[in-house]
Amino acid sequence: MNTSSLINQVNESLAALGEGPFTTVDSTESGEGAVVTGHLDGRLLRIEFVEEGSGDGPEKGHTVEVIDDATGESLGKGRGDSTFADAISSHSWAGTVEALKKLS
Predict the structure, then answer these.
(1) pLDDT digit of tens for each residue in the chain (104 aa)?
(2) What is the 3-state secondary structure (H, E, C) of the chain?
(3) Domain spans of the chain?
């Protein structure tokens, strides 16, 4: 999985809102996806990219979830049917930014 490409897409979404960038600190991959840890607005966050499904069908579900590392609170989730790019596009980044501001 090319997490740097996915984070570039996340940063494009944030930039469209005048926010960001999300700066990566660490990345861990597994069979179901990846977890990228980094900073946004001075706060440590995890972006979890999870691929769901058995793989028997032509498409799997793809989820992108932003989690505050300190509290474990979800700051938003996006879901796409066929790609992580779809999940990133469906994510409410404005909602995530708003939730992040409430934590600060």
Answers:
(1) 899 999 999 999 999 999 999 999 999 998 889 999 999 999 999 999 999 875 555 556 899 999 999 999 999 999 988 899 999 999 999 999 999 999 87
(2) CCHHHHHHHHHHHHHCCCCCCCEEEEEEEECCEEEEEEEECCEEEEEEEEEECCCCCCCCEEEEEEEECCCCCEEEEEEECCCHHHHHHHCCHHHHHHHHHHHC
(3) 3-103
